[in-house]
């Protein structure tokens, strides 16, 4: 089953079965070989990497570029206007280093830890709103609103605008192939919104991250470098500023809502684990690492393009072709995590790749961990009788190879 660079288009492996049963499918691919020639999410040929050590090396290999200018002909991918496309997911050093440095200070573990109590108050308030009903859709009323509110508070997005943002984001996460105009409309609406929001904060800055980034872009109110700019070269272009706001809001919502939802479902599927964590909530921080490994929110890392011919898992991949690194498969590789298909919150899951590895490690990983831990702690302590409110077979995941998340999660207590 292992392919070579000479594989023809008719020999591409169809991986659409991964939409319905990803972990069984990835196990078969890992057993068959480390790298496979597949039809990627855009329908074009790609190289899918499935084993832990190869994926980990690939995540930090400087020869695997995120810059789409290194893509050979045929790559289509997701198209964004330049004002939203100049983000960290499309950058290599030195631009990646410069832009990441300007925003990383807002997401250090120490700064994120200061959000623990505000996030707990938010979680308790969301649960107060549904407690008397005895049932709810946990995605719509809890796992979804919590990260939206947190990241919007950090960036200074007005409360009145947040429902629109969530609607646009959901459209981009799972576009309807039969209605491509919806995706274009959502992208256009987001661009107009970010442009207007940045203009408003230039006029009336607030105590928020977006206002700080605008100061970095503009060089401070008196023309000098902003507080985070160490040299005249440490600035953002206008497209980078808009794109960074887009990425922070989009990623700050999508990954965390899926991680919270998947974690709750994993516990409901394993009631003995839920009972143990309810009895010893101090173990939740460690358990979140296992949830991220076991059924994390990101199935595929952002596509990469070799800047030269490279060898991955003994397979030569030509320059410019699309490489897909499967985080979901790597995290279930039994050679790295024994009995990898078993949920074990007590396992030492450090080293999982759900938040990436190397210079492109997820900027918001500490925040996602804190939000998930806090959301789970509030939920399982508040509702000891928590249970699924639909048959397990009635649950549906979003139809995308890139991410792993529930459309809804009806629960009762």
Automatic annotation (TrEMBL):
The keyword tRNA processing does not apply. InterPro entries: Cyt_P450 (IPR001128), Cyt_P450_B (IPR002397), Cyt_P450_CS (IPR017972), Cyt_P450_sf (IPR036396). Keywords: Heme, Iron, Metal-binding, Monooxygenase, Oxidoreductase. It holds the Pfam family p450. PROSITE patterns: CYTOCHROME_P450. GO terms for molecular function: heme binding; iron ion binding; monooxygenase activity; oxidoreductase activity, acting on paired donors, with incorporation or reduction of molecular oxygen. The keyword Metal-binding applies. PANTHER family: CYTOCHROME P450 YJIB-RELATED, P450, PUTATIVE (EUROFUNG)-RELATED. Belongs to the cytochrome P450 family. This is Cytochrome P450. It comes from Streptomyces paromomycinus (Streptomyces rimosus subsp. paromomycinus).
């Amino acid at each position: 089953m292992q392919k070579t660079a000479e594989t023809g288009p008719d020999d591409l492996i169809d991986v659409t079965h991964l939409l319905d049963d990803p972990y069984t499918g990835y196990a078969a691919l890992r057993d068959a070989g480390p790298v496979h020639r597949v039809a990627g999410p855009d329908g074009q040929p790609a190289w899918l990497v499935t084993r832990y050590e190869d994926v980990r090396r690939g995540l930090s290999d400087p020869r695997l570029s995120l810059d789409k200018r290194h893509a050979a002909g045929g790559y289509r991918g997701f198209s964004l206007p330049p004002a939203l496309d100049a983000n960290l997911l499309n950058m290599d050093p030195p631009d990646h280093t410069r832009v990441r440095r300007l925003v990383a200070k807002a997401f250090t573990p120490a700064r994120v830890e200061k959000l623990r109590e505000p996030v707990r108050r938010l979680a308790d308030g969301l649960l107060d709103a549904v407690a008397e009903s005895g049932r709810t859709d946990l995605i719509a009323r809890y796992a979804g609103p919590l990260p939206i509110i947190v990241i919007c508070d950090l960036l200074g997005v007005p409360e009145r605008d947040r429902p629109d943002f969530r609607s646009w984001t959901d459209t981009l996460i799972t576009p309807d192939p039969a209605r491509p105009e919806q995706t274009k409309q959502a992208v256009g609406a987001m661009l107009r919104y970010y442009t207007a929001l940045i203009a408003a904060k230039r006029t009336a800055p607030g105590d928020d991250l977006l206002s700080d980034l605008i100061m970095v872009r503009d060089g401070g109110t008196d023309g000098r470098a902003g507080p985070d700019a160490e040299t005249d070269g440490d600035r953002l272009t206008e497209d980078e500023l808009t794109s960074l706001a887009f990425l922070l809001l989009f990623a700050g919502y999508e990954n965390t809502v899926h991680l919270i939802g998947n974690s709750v479902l994993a516990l409901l599927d394993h009631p003995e684990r839920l009972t143990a964590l309810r009895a010893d909530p101090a173990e939740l921080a460690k358990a979140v690492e296992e949830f991220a490994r076991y059924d994390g929110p990101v199935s595929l890392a952002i596509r990469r393009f070799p800047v030269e011919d490279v060898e991955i898992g003994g397979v030569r991949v030509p320059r410019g072709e699309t490489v897909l690194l499967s985080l979901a498969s790597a995290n279930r590789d039994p050679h790295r995590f024994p009995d990898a298909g078993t949920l074990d919150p007590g396992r030492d899951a450090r080293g999982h790749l759900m938040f990436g590895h190397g210079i492109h490690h997820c900027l918001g990983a500490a925040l996602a961990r804190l939000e998930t831990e806090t959301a789970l702690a509030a939920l399982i302590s508040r509702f000891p009788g928590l249970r699924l409110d639909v048959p397990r077979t009635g649950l549906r995941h979003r139809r995308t190879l890139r991410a792993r998340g529930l459309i809804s999660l009806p629960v009762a207590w």
